[in-house]
Structures
1.
Amino acid sequence: MYAGYGYTNFIEVHFGNKKERRAKQFFENANEYVEDLNGMLEYCRNFFAENPGIELEEYDPSKKILTNWGQVYDIDQLMEHAIVHVLKHRRQIQRFLSSQV
């Protein structure tokens, strides 16, 4: 969830909202994880609902978002990266589970 909240946080900070990044969370079971995952999705959804006029695509490099891993994205690219991030972890989990059989 840390990364999931982090993507929205990058955008918030980009627009001048000096929000603290949410601390990493650890869970005792899958239900807690799913509950927090739903909370993270709602947090992101609320941000976009409260900011309907933001430009998703930006061609001016000075208006793009510099990430802490060095990539520069507009909001559309950052959200696409967030989706791929989840798929990457899904693939890692599937590989781990298949190696345990």
Note: DSSP finds three helices and two strands in the chain.
2.
Amino acid sequence: MEPEAWVEVEGFGQLDEKMFVSRAVGRSMEPRIYDGDFLVFRSKPVGSRQGKIVLAQYQEIADPETGGSYTVKRYRSEKSFSPQGEWRHTKITLEPLNHEFRPIILEPEDEGAVQMIAEYLGTLGKTN
């Protein structure tokens, strides 16, 4: 994906090549993130995503709120230990903060349908 424009970012410490800004669309993450907010993300985060807000990309399905191929939600997962000695996801839930919206629940058979793109770092503000 190529940059569309440049914005000034303050208050996020040392910036690096994995950081980018994207504009929020929709109300599912209110009251923390509002439609039109500029959001700062770090792509390909390391470590646990549990409880963090993430940017996810749909491969086959669409966001129920916007119909688009990207969504911003809080990440929750449940895991179990497999007979092969590995941890495996049994369920991933992408939770909206706004209770007017329903969570997106991914089961093991949905593997590959959604890719976690980036971790949310904060909000720059609104354009209006």
Note: The domain at 19-125 is CATH 2.10.109.10 (Umud Fragment, subunit A).
3.
Amino acid sequence: MTNLSPAAQEVLDAALFEVNAECDARWIAAAVLRALADQVVPKRTALLSPGTVAGIRAEILAIATELEGTN
């Protein structure tokens, strides 16, 4: 298997953890979205304003929360 970047490995690990926990597809998707938010839109990014970063993260995490059925 090809070595993955740290970001790709984090997303894969999140999905595999949820699969191993025998959760349904919504929980797997939510875990992947949370990992995506952490890897693609870190809490602090020099290229974007803090408000923009927070807004993007919030939108991604809102989808994950909706999938989990916790909102």
Note: The helical segments are 6-20, 25-40, 50-68.
